Amino acid sequence: MIVNYNIEAINTVAQQVLDAATNKVLLFHGDMGTGKTTLIKAILQQLGSTDVVSSPTFSLVNTYDTGSGPVYHFDLYRLETVEEAYDFGIEEYLSSPHWIFIEWPELISDLLPPSYHSICLTLVNNETRQLQFK
User: Fold this and answer.
1) Which of 5, 73, 104, 121 could link 77 by a cystine bridge, Cβ 3.0 to 4.6 Å?
2) CA 52, CA 110: separation in Å to the nearest integer?
3) pLDDT tens-digit readout, 61-79
4) CATH topology of domain 2-133
């Protein structure tokens, strides 16, 4: 699925992502400023979360409540080694049956479960993003 969208359509796109997902591990790729966290916020709203969503850049993981279980949101941008991921227990999170959203997943590619979806975001212009869902 490839979709071009603007901020006004982000909730529709978030629902499309959820509808297309055949598993609960979503990897978010894209340069800084392409809207990874903004899309994750919209997806969490579609899942029923009313929590304040922010990028877990410094905490590495944020947990959000959806009413039907937690969602784990990772931002691995600051990780320098895979050992740092092991230090905070990434393998336990990845074996969870709950939704897992990972920004900057490249460092832990060898740790990922066999089944996941990649969401690649690119900047089309100041108002438009392109989402490629695999």
Assistant:
1) 104
2) 31
3) 999 999 889 999 999 999 9
4) Rossmann fold (3.40.50)
